[in-house]
Design goal:
heterodimer, A: mainly beta, 13-stranded mixed β-sheet, 17 strands, B: 486 residues, alpha/beta, Rossmann fold, Dimethylsulfoxide Reductase, domain 2, 9-stranded mixed β-sheet, 39% helix, 19% strand
């Protein structure tokens, strides 16, 4: 196991896409401390910014102890291994990852799990905006893998999502699942506005309150339970909405019947 | 005394190029054809708030220094900074902006323009779904349905209606100004009567009831031939007063409204009676007017870009235009504010590939609004130096962002003393682009127009372009010296 500890409180953004098990594998302490990172517009070495310790413990591969909220691109494109962060993490955590596991015992900034293709990200705190969403202008969202958030999630999460699972134990902000075409999102508490806007496929399950539903969703049926992933079901009953009609989409929105009495007016369309 | 014709006005995105100036004793004496903002700008070159010499903060006081000293000091600040920001750019010419890109690349900083607090979301929307647009000339000659969504050109772009849309005589579409004048007169008369009633001079005949959205049924006129004007806004603006139909949308619900209109355009049925406070049957009439026109155009402003939903509002508005193009001809255009903000986006794009929020810190351009935009960087307190040109962020940025901007060395290039120059560490006076310096600017429809030099700048004053290129040269010298030492 390699333990990284920040040497100071950073002011400038730090880009450290070298912090992945794939790059760290088989390197000596000296080689590790010579890996290139960017601090603002200055090129630095990993050893100048982090204290590096190598221990004999096998798993996890990398442990970061301390607040690394300014450090971006940790776990970039990782394919295997495990990273554990005991603190808050900066943007683009686990971007383009296709395997392995990242556990964050803190909060994350924007674009966590952006363009993810596989693997698991578990966030014990809150996640920022654009969770599992692509960079600006890209239409390639989350392709596979799993994200679990124990806290709340910011806005624009899971946009252009194609496959995979996102589970949120807290609340979600607006525009979740925007233009998604597949995959499953489960929000255990309350959802924000414009949920699933422009979606054409996939399903979003809301076990809490959904205050405002887009006018372009139509009630299809009421269902007792819904499958989240193999061996896991959410228990309802749920109103099942189809949409987004503006995109002639076939996405499904499951909204808890018990928690949303204001939606009973839709029942006349059944 | 001389008269200069066909001068381009350097105020708003309309870039009216029919201004006639009378010059007497080396100063602008009369402005013809312009709006109030245009007049104010052309007279401003004689303003007492002009800075006439470079200033530098020494012991907390701004003291006059020479250009050489100020340029040397600025170059040192920028060359040694780890994460500098270069912000502004929208009120200067393309020539200065071009050097700005080179400077940002040389110092490895973040280059951003005022679009970030204005029409930046429009650009994000365009990057997501594309944009079916046209030039203002086409609108003038052919458009028979004009929709202003979340903008008030009567106040912000005063000659937009008169030069490009409803009040102009195009080749295929006539002006509607006569009917509007009658309408405005009638409205003014009604207001007068009501005021007299309130004061008790006239006996109250009909008790006045404020009209609710429910009473606001689309009028028959929407189905007639000829130019029609529709305004969608959260309140009855000046433009809404002259419109054929004013659609009042609930605050922050534009996204839902446009999405519902899109569903109706696609002949879908909605499960709700009202969307954003507007009955669906009225929306159906609006959709009928949209699909039955020959050439429609949507102009949108801050009401869409900076309200809840931001760039998703633009995304959906453009998608609506795309859907309408299946049925008829439709176009969409942002109402850009500063006279050359479109130019800033264009110059930055052709030089670096990205329109704003460009981070050169890794040596190559990176772009990710939210991460590489100036307001976010300042809020996260990451920058360590700043250069502000032709802008006043201190008066309109969030307070925390301003606090961080002021904490670090701040270089300001501006013709006038404004809130940002007052707190700057180095202040450069510059000649006014479009009055004292010729250049190029882009109109809101991406048409480049030449700016004229009509009077001479105060003696010894350099232009934005010259100041920036001298700073750039100095930065290059410093970098070369450090390389030699290494």
């Amino acid at each position: 196991m390699i333990v990284l500890t920040p040497l100071k409180k950073y002011q400038y953004p730090i880009i450290a896409e070298c912090i992945t098990p794939d790059v760290f594998q088989g390197k000596t302490k000296e080689e590790l401390s010579n890996l290139p990172v960017w601090e603002g517009n200055k090129k630095r070495k990993l050893g100048e910014l982090f204290k590096i310790d190598v221990t004999s413990v096998k798993s996890p591969d990398i442990t970061i102890i301390g607040d690394v909220i300014k450090v971006k691109r940790i776990g970039w494109g990782m394919t295997q291994g495990e990273i554990v962060v005991n603190g808050n993490v900066g943007m683009h955590l686990g971007k383009k990852m296709s395997g392995g596991k990242i556990v964050v015992n803190g909060n994350t900034e924007g674009w966590t799990g952006s363009q993810m293709k596989g693997g698991l990200i578990e966030i014990k705190g809150n996640a920022g905006d654009y969770l599992g969403s692509p960079y600006r202008g890209s239409t390639v969202g989350m392709r596979n893998g799993k994200i679990i958030v124990h806290g709340n999630v910011g806005s624009d999460a899971a946009i252009y999502m194609k496959s995979g699972v996102i589970k949120i134990h807290g609340n979600a902000d607006s525009f979740m699942g925007f233009r998604m075409t597949g995959g499953v999102i489960h929000i255990e508490k309350n959802a924000g506005t414009r949920l699933g806007a422009c979606m054409t496929g996939g399903k979003i399950v809301v076990s809490g309150i959904l205050k405002n539903i887009m006018p372009t969703f139509a009630l299809e049926l009421i269902k007792g339970k819904v499958k989240i992933e193999t061996g896991e079901k959410a228990v309802g009953p749920f109103y099942v909405f189809l949409g987004d009609l503006a995109e002639t989409g076939k996405g499904k929105l499951f909204v808890s019947k018990e928690k949303n009495p204001q939606m009973s007016q839709y029942e006349r369309f059944l | 005394m001389s008269i200069v014709k066909s001068v381009t006005c350097p105020v708003c995105g309309c870039l009216c190029d029919d201004i006639e100036l009378t010059i007497a004793d080396g100063a602008v004496a009369q402005v013809k054809n312009g709006c109030a903002m245009c007049e104010a700008k052309f007279f401003s070159h004689n303003n007492k708030h002009r800075i006439t010499t470079p200033l530098m903060r020494k012991d907390g006081e701004l003291v006059p220094v020479s250009y050489d000293e100020a340029i040397q000091k600025s170059a040192e600040i920028l060359a040694n900074a780890t994460y500098p920001i270069l912000y502004g750019w929208s009120s200067t010419d393309c020539e200065a902006q071009r050097i700005g890109v080179a400077l940002a690349e040389e110092v490895g900083g973040v280059l951003d323009n005022t679009a970030v607090v204005c029409h930046g979301p429009s650009i994000l929307g365009v990057q997501d779904v594309g944009i079916p647009t046209c030039t203002l000339g086409q609108v003038r000659h052919r458009a028979d349905l004009i929709i202003y969504w979340g903008c008030d050109p009567w106040s912000a772009h005063p000659r937009h209606l008169e030069r490009y849309t409803s009040f102009t005589d195009g080749r295929f579409e006539g002006s509607e100004w006569k009917s509007y004048i009658n309408k405005v007169k009638a409205a003014a008369g009604k207001k007068k009567l009501r005021s007299l009633e309130r004061k008790g001079i006239l006996k109250e005949r009909h008790p006045h009831i404020a009209p609710s959205v429910n009473d606001n049924k689309p009028p028959e006129i929407l189905n007639k031939k000829g130019r029609k004007l529709i305004v969608v806004d959260v309140r009855k603006s000046m433009t809404a007063e002259v419109a054929d139909y004013f659609l009042q949308v609930e605050y922050g619900k534009d996204y839902e409204l446009i999405q519902a209109v899109r569903a109706l355009v696609k002949d879908q049925e909605l499960d709700v009676e009202k969307v954003a406070g507007v009955p669906v049957e009225y929306l159906q009439q609006l959709v009928d007017a949209m699909t039955s026109c020959e050439f429609g155009v949507i102009f949108f402003g801050m009401g869409l870009t900076q309200s809840a939903g931001k760039f998703r509002n633009i995304d959906v508005a453009i998608s609506l235009v795309r859907d309408l193009n299946m049925r008829t001809k439709f176009a969409i255009m942002p109402m850009r504010g500063h006279f050359n903000v479109t130019g800033a986006n264009t110059v930055f794009t052709w030089q670096s590939g990205y329109p704003y929020g460009i981070d050169f810190s890794m040596g190559y351009p990176r772009y990710n609004p939210g991460e590489t935009t100036v307001v976010d960087i300042l809020m996260r307190e990451e920058s360590d130096a700043g250069l502000v040109i032709a802008s006043d962020p201190v008066s309109n940025f969030p307070r925390r962002a301003v606090e961080h901007l002021v904490k670090n060395p701040l270089i300001v290039i501006d013709p006038h003393m404004n809130a940002t120059s007052l707190v700057g560490d180095i202040v450069f006076p510059a000649s006014i682009v479009g009055i004292e310096k010729a250049g190029t600017a882009y109109r809101m429809d991406h048409v480049p127009l030449p700016l004229k030099k009509v009077v001479d700048p105060p003696e010894g004053l350099l232009s934005d372009e010259e100041i920036l290129s001298r700073i750039l040269n100095e930065v290059r010298n410093i970098k070369l010296k450090t390389l030699e030492v290494a």
